[in-house]
């Protein structure tokens, strides 16, 4: 898929990643193309699955989700069995779920209001997942950088 992206596509991705609400006319001006041509390229990027959605970023503290934690999870499932993962992805508190190499099976990113809310999440939801054998939680004290922006190259 990446071989089909040219420098114009990469520029479009760079600008839209910074501001997904950027009007097409303004995007076209920044890139130096006709708005209709840019609109067509954006449509093609969506059709190819390069652009998978457009979202807003919310400051977590503004909605009282002040606690950020990473939870390492071990499960009893064997290779190829993803029953625990299927349950974890259903939980709205789970922001990210990664199948990892090493001693643990999964790394989960969650947000909660406070330590008590995190304990409640662990007791009420995580502990009820069949096959989940242990957790190890790391609470973030301070975040220096948190982004979903990918480092887009100028050329591929």
Provide a descriptive summary of the structure in words.
With 156 residues, the chain is of the alpha+beta class. It folds into 2 domains: 46 residues, Arc Repressor Mutant, subunit A; 80 residues, Alpha-Beta Plaits. Helix 2 crosses helix 3. It is elongated, with a radius of gyration of 20 Å. The termini are close together. The model has no long low-confidence stretch (mean pLDDT 93).
Helix/strand-derived category reads alpha+beta
State the strand order across the main sheet.
2-3-1-4
Which fold name is given in CATH as the topology of the largest domain?
Alpha-Beta Plaits
* Overall CATH architecture of the largest domain: 2-Layer Sandwich
Residue-averaged pLDDT, rounded?
93
CATH class wording of the largest domain: Alpha Beta
Order of helices and strands: HHHEHEEHE
Largest sheet: 4 strands, antiparallel
Report the radius of gyration as a whole number of Å. Answer: 20 Å
Q: Classify the helix fraction into a percent range.
A: 25-40%
> Number of DSSP helices?
5
**What assembly state would you assign to the polypeptide chains in this entry?**
single chain
Shape: elongated
Which key features would you list for this structure?
single chain; 156 residues; alpha+beta; Arc Repressor Mutant, subunit A; Alpha-Beta Plaits; four-stranded antiparallel β-sheet; 19% strand
């Amino acid at each position: 898929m990446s071989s089909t992206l040219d420098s114009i596509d990469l520029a479009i991705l760079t600008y839209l990643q910074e501001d997904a609400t950027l009007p097409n006319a303004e995007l076209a001006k920044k890139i130096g193309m006709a708005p209709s041509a840019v609109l067509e390229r954006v449509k093609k990027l969506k059709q190819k699955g390069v652009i998978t959605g457009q979202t807003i970023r919310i400051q977590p503290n503004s909605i009282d989700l002040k606690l950020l934690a990473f939870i390492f999870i071990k499960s009893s499932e064997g290779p190829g069995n993803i029953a625990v993962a299927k349950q974890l992805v259903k939980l709205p508190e789970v922001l990210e779920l990664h199948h990892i190499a090493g001693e643990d099976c999964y790394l989960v990113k969650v947000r909660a209001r406070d330590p008590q809310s995190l304990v409640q999440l662990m007791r009420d939801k995580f502990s009820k997942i069949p096959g989940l054998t242990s957790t190890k939680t790391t609470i973030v004290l301070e975040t220096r950088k948190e982004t979903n922006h990918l480092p887009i190259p100028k050329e591929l």
